[in-house]
């Protein structure tokens, strides 16, 4: 039985090399960054085959609201080609390791106009059937406060203060009952004053 | 009994109005811009709303308005809890002074915040107007004031 299974799997694997299989590309979903900072956009892929020498990575950029995408990076034949005419000239750096299936790029000195969608397409011949994966870049001047944070802060402060008030109230009652303090509160005052007088006489 | 329910309902309404004024984003509204105390929503050319932080605002005044509006929310919620607690623990015939004090502090806070916003922000802008959150802030100032007075005057039933 086991040998039968082993033989079938070897036979299937033998059939497979003649066809190309799907390659799965991974990037992030959304990245947030501040103006002027650097950000690394990571891209890697999963393929059933060994990483070939003809592996290619290419990045394209589509600004927010635009329908056209421009190509900004291409790696092929062991060499990386960076954008030297478009919006990212002199701001792009290849920090990936194609041998380890990593095609990440580094964007330096971000500007507000860099908001947009970056698409990574990787090919590992003969595995070329795959869907390019996109990561959305959001550039902020200063990260704005979200409504949830404010609500959470208000609720947190209210609960904290409530706890404090309850603790102080019960502490005061405890201390007054133990006659550590002599408070003159309208109806309870007489007993407390007697108690403090007694202590004075003893002292 | 009815008055008690009415006061509690009014207090809860005030809390809700204050929370909406502090958190919702419509203190200053123009055609394609909606700004509040924390950020600004801008409508871009491609019909998408972008949330950005507030630039060109005087930093210290903005922080003062943010702090006072949050404090007003905190104090008025605390006043509600203290009111309910005092309903049970207060000796008969006494006034709800602690609740009244908390409520008047909340009233002062929101008054300070809304006044600073009126006087120092958006003074030179010609287009645009105040949004609903700004109006709610002033309405809740009136409501907190009335509630504070009520707590100072009200006495617990003697029987």
TrEMBL record, chain A:
TM region(s), chain numbering: 145-171
Superkingdom, natural source: Eukaryota
GO process terms (BP): myelination
Keywords for this protein: Disulfide bond, Glycoprotein, Immunoglobulin domain, Membrane, Signal, Transmembrane, Transmembrane helix
Subcellular compartments: Membrane
Gene Ontology annotations for the cellular component aspect, listed alphabetically: plasma membrane
Ranges for domain Ig-like: 17-136
InterPro entries (alphabetical): Ig-like_dom, Ig-like_dom_sf, Ig-like_fold, Ig_sub, Ig_V-set, Myelin_P0-rel
Its membrane topology: Single-pass type I membrane protein
Signal peptide boundaries: 1-22
PANTHER family per UniProt: MYELIN P0 RELATED, MYELIN PROTEIN P0
Name this protein carries in UniProt: Myelin protein zero
Gene name linked to the record: MPZ
Automatic annotation (TrEMBL), chain B:
Main localization of the protein described in the UniProt heading: membrane
GO cellular component terms, semicolon-separated: plasma membrane
Localization of this protein: Membrane
Protein's membrane topology: Multi-pass membrane protein
A Pfam family of this chain: PMP22_Claudin
Domain of life: Eukaryota
Sequence intervals crossing the membrane: 61-84, 96-117, 129-154
Keyword terms, alphabetized: Glycoprotein, Membrane, Transmembrane, Transmembrane helix
Family, as annotated: Belongs to the PMP-22/EMP/MP20 family.
Annotated protein name in UniProt: Epithelial membrane protein 1
Species this chain originates from: Oreochromis niloticus
